[in-house]
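lol forgot to send this yesterday, sorry. struct tokens for the thing we talked abt
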């Protein structure tokens, strides 16, 4: 698999997205990230793609290593999420806000935002619980402490359905009457 091929995730729920301002709490240069909770019916496709890339990254690291038996496989960028229901998959996407490229130049990265029709729109706000799709590339890595694996580099986000949509309908559905104060 070409590690620079742009892929699109299935739709899922955004979990703790930091897409508009870089998270600098744990990363000095900043990190844009989100987790995507994917329904079990849509998860097998993305898991297969990630696992294939992980195996290729592991095999490539073993070929380059002087001691291939010491290379370990890094943790996958996804996990099963039993706390959200049977079979749901929690996938991590991220990109550094400021990174050094192969030529030594600093490059700023910021995810692009798209509406449900696929039109680019910088005004879109992504929040927790929104239904989104993520555009990403699979980036292989090999470090001595973590091992050989892949990271899912966030490129863009498409908002399918805002979690705020139901809140706009809620006041009309709730027919509250005036309540007097109890003394």
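and heres what i got for the seq, position by position
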């Amino acid at each position: 698999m070409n590690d620079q091929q742009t892929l699109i995730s299935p739709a899922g729920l955004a979990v703790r997205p930091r897409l508009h301002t870089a998270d600098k709490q744990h990363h000095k240069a900043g990190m844009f990230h989100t987790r995507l909770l994917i329904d079990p019916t849509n998860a097998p496709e993305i898991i297969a793609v990630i696992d294939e890339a992980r195996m290729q990254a592991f095999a490539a690291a073993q070929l380059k290593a002087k001691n291939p038996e010491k290379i370990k496989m890094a943790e996958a960028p996804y996990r099963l999420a039993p706390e959200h229901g049977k079979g749901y998959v929690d996938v991590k996407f991220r990109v550094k806000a400021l990174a050094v490229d192969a030529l030594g130049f600093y490059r700023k990265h910021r995810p692009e935002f798209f509406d449900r029709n696929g039109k680019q729109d910088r005004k879109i706000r992504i929040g927790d619980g929104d239904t989104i799709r993520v555009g990403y590339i699979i980036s292989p890595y090999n470090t001595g402490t973590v091992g050989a694996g892949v990271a899912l580099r966030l490129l863009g986000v498409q908002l399918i359905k805002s979690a705020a949509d139901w809140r706009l309908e809620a006041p009309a559905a709730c027919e509250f009457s005036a309540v007097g104060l109890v003394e």
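Residues 82 and 121 are 34 Å apart (CA to CA). anyway ping me if u want another try
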